[in-house]
Every structure is written in C-alpha cells, then in structure tokens.
Amino acid sequence: MKEHVKKVVSKMTARCLALQRLKGLRPRQARQLYLAVITPATDYAASTWYAQGRRGSQGLISALESIQRLGARSILGAFKGVSLAVLEAEAHLEPVTHMLHRKVTSHLASLCALPETNPATICLRRFPRQASRYPSPLGATWSMHRPILQQKGIRLVLKGSP
Predict the structure, then answer these.
(1) Which are the contacts of 143, defined by CB distance < 8 A and separation ≥ 6?
(2) How far is 157 from 146, CA to CA, in rounded Å?
(3) Is residue 50 within 8 Å of residue 60, measured between CB atoms?
(4) CA 107: distance to chain centroid?
(5) In a designed cystine with 87, which of 62, 72, 146, 157 is the match (CB 3.0 to 4.6 A)?
(6) CA dist., res. 67 & res. 35, Å (int)
(7) 156 pLDDT exceeds 60?
C-alpha cells in the first residue's frame, strides 16, 4: 500500500497548495473545502491497509500527517513551525489516526449490517476461524472490537461461526 499512499500524498499536496492559493476565504470555508475535497481522498480504502497498532503502518500515517499539516496551515494561514497537534486543534480537524480508526470501524459496522446472503458476510464469518500470524487489517479491527461489542450485547459473530 506504500505506492497507493505515495500517489495520494502527491495528489493531495497539490490540492492543499491550490487551497492555499485561494484568497479571501474565511477559515471556516477553507476547512469545509478541506473536509470535502482532501479528507475523503486520504482515507479512501483505509480498511485495506490500516489497523490500529499494526506494524509497518506508521510510515504511511506519517505521510498522511504531512498532508494534514499542510491542509491545516492552509486553513489557518499559520507558520511552518507550528506543531501538528496545535494546528489540528485550532482548525478543528480530527487527528489522522483517529480519522482512520473511525473510518475502518464504520466500514466494519456496515459490513456487519449486511444480509447473511451477501458475500461479504461470508467473509466476516471466517474471521473467527482464521488463525493467521498476519491477519488482514479489517480482521485485526474485528478482533479488537469483538469483546467490546459482546459486552454490550451486540452479536458480532454471525450465524454459522463459532
């Protein structure tokens, strides 16, 4: 997925620079443009490569954080030396790791809501049976949320699985 993230970073850098060139925008309008144009492209297909705490994804997250920093600076008109945490707080942007985690979790929830005849549901049934050293990112997210959902009485393990 390094190649995918590399392409996204180059395209979104160009878009952030274009956002920076727009004059006369209020920060609220610039934030709305950032959230409508840049954020959906950066978190596209996140469930295929991102799992919280997964080894090897920190470099990809750092690349996306550079986009977030450039976008927040475009929104606020801030200096280069301002830290990313301050920029995110002032621009009211969600941190990259939180955004990716929310995106992958919401994708998992939408898969769990599919009818049992859907092919994706059949794949979800296999998650508890798959004993793999390297689970898929979606499988790792499923494993992470399974105890929480079972405590709340939500049955994530679908019919036909152990």
Answers:
(1) 127, 135
(2) 8
(3) yes
(4) 10
(5) 72
(6) 12
(7) no
